[in-house]
Amino acid sequence: MQPSNDKRIIIAVGAALAILAAVVLALVFSGGRQGSAEPPPAAQGGLTVDVADAPSLEPTRQLRCFVEGQYVGMATLTECAQRNGLATEALDVGIDATGALAAAPTAAFAPVPELPPVQLTEKPVTAPAAAPTTPAAAPVQTGGTACLRHAGSEWRALSSNMSLNQCVQALYAGTCVRPGEAQYGRWGDLTLRLVPRRVEQSSDNSRFRTLAEQDRNCQFPGLN
């Protein structure tokens, strides 16, 4: 009877070893599938963005409001849109020249500069009359309409003899501005303003209307 008992012991030990091996293998494979709990190296060394830190614009927050390029006081985004006759989504919200948060139509953050000195916009003189011994001739202009650029805090004359289209091309051809920016020029008695995708004109240095559209290459095909 002794050999039979030995066989049973061997079988029991073998079964126990098999179960233990199966448990170890199960733990090994399940641990490999779960992966490490630490973030990947790219996440540890790369850019981290916390959406919770993004600023929110409250509907009741007061902003500096601009209408036709003029500061009109503090207002909510909805109130500023109503003053401009636009939908709220049609306003840009950004930092104006003072560094304060402001709302306005595209490119109205840059304030309209003061008019240039008179000596830069004087009308061209005419040539003196012909001598009495020759037939009277039509007056000949020695200059045209002045074209000025506003750069920094001063006006600079580009030419004293340009047409309106030539002035716009000289000022802005090949130049694009970003939303919230504007560049100003002057042609005769007109103030010119480059804003995203168009050039505007104003006869009173306050109310602007579109003069020419600008294409993706920052050119003005309608002025050719």
Descriptive account of the structure:
There is one protein chain. The chain is an alpha+beta fold and 224 residues long. 25% of the residues lie in helices and 25% in strands. The chain has helices at residues 2-34, 41-45, 77-84, 164-172; strands at residues 63-67, 70-75, 92-95, 101-104, 145-151, 154-162, 183-187, 190-195, 198-202, 209-213. It is elongated and about 125 Å long.
Share in helix? 10-25%
Any idea what the radius of gyration is? 38 Å
Helix-strand string:
HHEEHEEEEHEEEE
Q: How big a fraction of the residues is strand?
A: 25-35%
Which descriptor suits the 3D outline?
Answer: elongated
Q: Determine the N-to-C terminus distance.
A: 116 Å
How many β-strand runs? 10
Structural class: alpha+beta
> How can the largest sheet be summarized?
6 strands, antiparallel
Total count of helical runs of at least 4 residues: 4
What are the segments in which pLDDT stays under 50 over at least 5 consecutive residues?
Answer: 40-55, 124-143
Strand order of the largest sheet: 6-5-7-8-9-10
Mean pLDDT, all residues? 75
Keywords:
six-stranded antiparallel beta sheet; 224 residues; four-stranded mixed beta sheet; alpha+beta; elongated
Sum this structure up briefly.
The protein is 25% helix and 25% strand. It is α+β, with helices and mostly antiparallel strands and 224 residues long.
Record the SSE blueprint:
Blueprint (H helix, E strand, L loop, with lengths): L1 H33 L6 H5 L17 E5 L2 E6 L1 H8 L7 E4 L5 E4 L40 E7 L2 E9 L1 H9 L10 E5 L2 E6 L2 E5 L6 E5 L11
Parallel strand pairs: 1-4
Antiparallel strand pairs: 1-2, 3-4, 5-6, 5-7, 7-8, 8-9, 9-10
